[in-house]
Design goal:
By secondary structure, the chain is α/β, with parallel strands linked by helices. It has eleven helices and 16 strands. Strands 8-7-6-5-4-3-2-9 form an eight-stranded parallel beta sheet. It has a six-stranded antiparallel beta barrel with strand order 10-11-14-13-12-15.
């Protein structure tokens, strides 16, 4: 194989167990598998068997059907409202669906399908969801008097509330919107993400922890050391907490999370490039001296961009010239052979480092490299 992603299922299982143990105050757990499970593929749902995770969340019905290929029993919440024409598929596959407006709810009731629903509240993100407490109460009453089952109610945070009071405002908005609703009767009440779960104490009204990026090995809790800059950051955080009357936050949470993805490729050719010549299109990338170059079978079609180095035989090899659609060149020494494996993402070159190189989020990098590459599960 030219370029492939190795997905380590055992690390997903390990992470699920570590997270649910750390968040043991919660009754239920939802793992977010949207975006093709952050590029890892919906097949990783198999790694969640025999863990405390009872439901996964996906973006749309296509992702939900992909999950069902690998798990017939786990709960599947579709986060985006599905088309009415797809309700038969949702009912047949026992999917839970999101309800975001009264009009959409009435369409579901009229369809006379037995479906489990999660009421989506807009508490400040200004995306999907109810914004009026009367409509929320009416929606739940309408659903309870129909074939629908109110399985959950949820919202999503705009920020993690470390440097601003938006977290606290959204919590207050959730409480306002659910006034008059008996949340204890609803099986899944979820209002979290990975960072919020690590930085904030459990909300009394939430019985479910919903998380994504943590599952794949990323501890996104802010971490501070003993450097002068870190001490300044801590002082800044304390200032914000006092001046804005923020709820208590936590930093430096230690979790034994493991990365579950490794990306490798092969060498297509090894050659000498003379000094004074150019690598790539347009004569833009000049080589100043004679160097040895390996041409690799990976490029921006594989989600590689702005990458400055790779690893071959545990040695850092700098990228030479531009990254092409399906190839790239790196500078090598005499120890590299045509049969050596090239590590594009791994222990020495983490997704976090790639995100810094590319000025992107970890999620963006995971999705870009998870799209067009062959996945091998172990």
């Amino acid at each position: 194989m030219d370029t492939q992603l190795k997905i380590k299922q055992k690390e997903i299982t390990h992470n699920a167990n570590v997270i649910t143990e750390y968040l043991s105050d919660y009754d239920k757990f939802i793992a977010v598998l949207k975006g093709c499970a952050y590029g890892h593929g919906e097949q990783i749902v198999q790694a969640l068997e025999n863990t405390k995770i009872t439901m996964v969340a996906v973006s749309g019905i296509d992702e939900a059907l992909n999950v069902r290929k690998y798990s017939k029993n786990i709960g599947v919440l579709i986060l985006e409202p599905i088309e009415i024409q797809a309700l038969n598929v949702a009912e047949e596959n026992n999917f839970s669906i999101t309800v975001h407006t009264t009009e959409y709810l009435k369409d579901l009731i009229a369809a006379e399908k037995k479906l489990r629903i999660h009421i989506k509240l807009d508490t400040g993100l200004n995306r999907l969801g109810f914004v009026d407490k009367k409509e929320v109460k009416t929606a739940i009453q309408l659903a309870e008097n129909s074939n629908l089952i109110v399985e959950g109610i949820y919202s999503h945070f705009q920020t993690v509330g470390i440097y601003d009071n938006i977290y606290d405002l959204q919590v207050a908005k959730f409480i306002e919107l659910t006034e008059g609703v008996d949340l204890k009767k609803i099986p899944y009440v979820h209002f979290s993400n990975s960072t919020v779960l690590l930085c904030h104490q459990k909300l009394d009204f939430c019985n479910t922890a919903r998380f994504g990026i943590m599952l794949y090995g990323f501890n996104v809790c802010p971490s501070y050391g003993d450097s002068f800059k870190d001490r300044l950051r801590l002082l800044r955080n304390r200032y914000y907490q006092r001046s804005l009357h923020l709820s208590k936050t936590t930093c430096n949470v230690k979790l034994d999370l493991h990365f579950a993805m490794e990306m490798t490729t092969r060498i297509l050719q090894i050659k000498e490039v003379e000094g004074g010549t150019f690598v790539g299109y347009g004569n833009k990338h000049r080589v100043n001296e004679k160097i040895r170059v390996a041409v690799l079978a990976a490029g921006y079609n594989n989600g590689i961009k702005n990458q400055r180095y790779v690893y071959i035989n545990n040695k850092k090899c700098e990228v030479v010239g531009p990254i092409f659609m399906n190839m790239m060149c790196v500078k090598i020494d005499d120890s590299v052979t045509l049969n050596d494996t090239v590590v594009l993402v791994g222990q020495n070159l983490t997704i976090g480092k790639l995100a810094s190189m590319r000025n992107e989020s970890i999620s963006q990098v995971l999705l870009s490299i998870g799209k067009n590459n062959i996945k091998v599960y172990e």
